[in-house]
Amino acid sequence: MTKSSQNTINTFDCVIIGAGAAGLMASIEAAKRGQRVLLLEKNSKPGVKILMSGGTRCNLTQDTDTRGIVSAFGKQGRFLHSALARFSNTDLIEYFRERGVPTKIEPSGKVFPQSDRAKDVLDALVNDATKNDVALNLNEPAKTVEYRDGTFEISTQHAVYKVDTVLITTGGLSFPGCGTTGDGYTWCQQFGHSIVPTVPALVPLKTPEDSWTRELQGVTLEDLELTVLDSSGVIQSTTRGSTLFTHLGISGPAAMNISKTISYAGHSNLNLQINFLPEFNREQKIAHLTDLCQRNAKRQLTTSLKELLPSRTINVLLNQAKINPTIRCAEISKATIRVLAETLHTLCTTVTGTLGFAKAEVTAGGIELSEVHSQTMESKCQPGLFLAGEILNLDGPIGGYNFTAAFATGFLAGQNL
Fold it and tell me: What is the pLDDT of residue 269?
């Protein structure tokens, strides 16, 4: 259908493009203020990423205060002060409780719905949007977003919508199967916005096929310290937490939290240094191993180390340290203990990259934050244009931080549309 043969519709005050966390929350808030809201979604159902997040459980937010949310985003976090002042993670939890979705806090601080069903989160949002007369058009992707004669024109295959304000919440490039294909970046560039280079973040890491990490496929260790080093041995990033070894490399929260560093490095030669007992420094490791060997003099080292780590992990570590796994503790020299302690502290593997946007939970990069009014989410480049959610250059660690930012920026945008 050509543009000239499309219906021109002027019955809405604003159009929101993208029915994810930010778009749904913004539509609800704008509609509550009396705005006639059209929410366009290219998929056959809204909130696809909500449904798949957190292993289909939806990690809504983190059990911390506003300062904790802001600091988790690093320098970018300052942009969130106004949004969180209007709609904090506490407000978010209360919002869902009032709509029949009580939450629970897990030991990691992650906040999930008590039902462990992401669908309950999405249903609450969609029901609220429906109750407030938001027009939700599914299977209707926006084709163009233009500004003519003081009015925005949003073209789809069905119509041209003319409105005073537009909110773009199309997300980034992560999980492209959800429809996040970067359309919003192009539209924003047309209005003069700068795009901070986008890379996959919160994504599993790849290691070489001959890396020792492949021998640990399927093993999860709850507390490892991971440090990314460049070719000169300079630390680029470090984190600590649960780590999963896979058939392709390394995953789990700790690995995914440092994946942005790997992504931005591109094809640079990077090493990943792993500390297997981060609660002990080098000298404490030596002391701990010495004590362990003295207490278990007649036992094999392999058996004694099961007090510290799983069997498969021990076998790999001893192999990397070139220590005979059948040696008895009484036969181990101080030099051997030092070698083992160093292996536990600084075992390295090369990292060849990440699994890319297809497996990334979020996108790092996006709309330059200095070009957006943090108090309103309105563009500084084009009055009447608003931006919220993952399209912004905002990415936080695993733990519900990114959903918190999406809901908060969407809420604030909805108050100003």
Answer: 80
Nearest to 356 by CA among 175, 178, 172, 195: 175
Average pLDDT over residues 103-121: 97
Give the pair of three-digit tokens for residue 176.
Answer: 């492209």
CA dihedral in degrees (258, 259, 260, 261; nearest 10)?
70
CA–CA dist 34, 190 (Å, integer): 30
Give CA–CA dist 270/277, Å, rounded.
22
Q: How do 220-229 and 235-245 pair as beta strands?
A: antiparallel
Domain boundary among 355, 377, 394: 355
User: Quick check: helix, strand or coil at residue 332?
Assistant: coil
Closest CA to 80 of 415, 411, 409, 417: 409
Predicted TM-score (pTM) of this structure: 0.93
Where in the sequence is the domain holding 377, given as residue range(s)? 3-200+358-416
**Cα-based distances in Å from 353 to 57, 230, 243, 361:** 28, 13, 17, 16
Per-residue pLDDT, averaged over 175-199, amounts to 90
